[in-house]
Specification:
Helices cover 8% and strands 55% of the residues. It is mainly beta. Strands 1-3-4-6-5 form a five-stranded mixed beta barrel. 19% of the residues are buried.
């Protein structure tokens, strides 16, 4: 049996996507989404609590281009991808970044409006990441 690394999220963009290019010319978009979880309080089940996580999303090439052209701060989106934990150094100290590498992104819009589906090319290669 092979391992499974698949993540599905819905959330709102915290800011406009940051678009950069690798030295090889590959386009990469980086942005964060706010994902909220609502649950009932333990002490008082009538009192709803909310916990929000801010998750970094990375999109490559054609998907990054479509994200740049169609998404902005506040948009509600659906992301399918895989979890990646990168290790890097800053001033000799090891740091870790947890992020989702997007495979598919959908812009979720109001009822009656058209849904825009964005799909990445089948190329799964990831050049050097320009974000640290």
């Amino acid at each position: 049996m092979s391992d499974v690394n698949r993540v599905f999220l819905t959330g709102r963009l915290v800011a406009d996507p940051d678009i950069r290019y690798t030295p090889a010319g590959n386009e990469v978009a980086q942005f964060r989404i706010a994902v909220s979880l609502k649950y009932r309080g333990k002490q008082d089940p009538t009192n709803w609590q909310e916990e929000t996580s801010f998750i970094t999303i990375i999109a490559w090439n054609r998907l990054a281009d479509k994200v740049e052209k169609t998404m902005k701060k506040g948009d509600l989106i659906f992301v399918e991808g895989r979890l990646r934990i990168r290790e890097y150094e800053v001033d000799g100290n090891k740091r870790y970044a947890t992020e989702i590498v997007a495979r598919d992104i959908k812009l979720i819009v109001a009822k009656g409006a058209k849904e825009i589906e964005l799909e990445e090319a089948t190329d799964e290669s990831e050049p050097d990441v320009p974000f640290a």
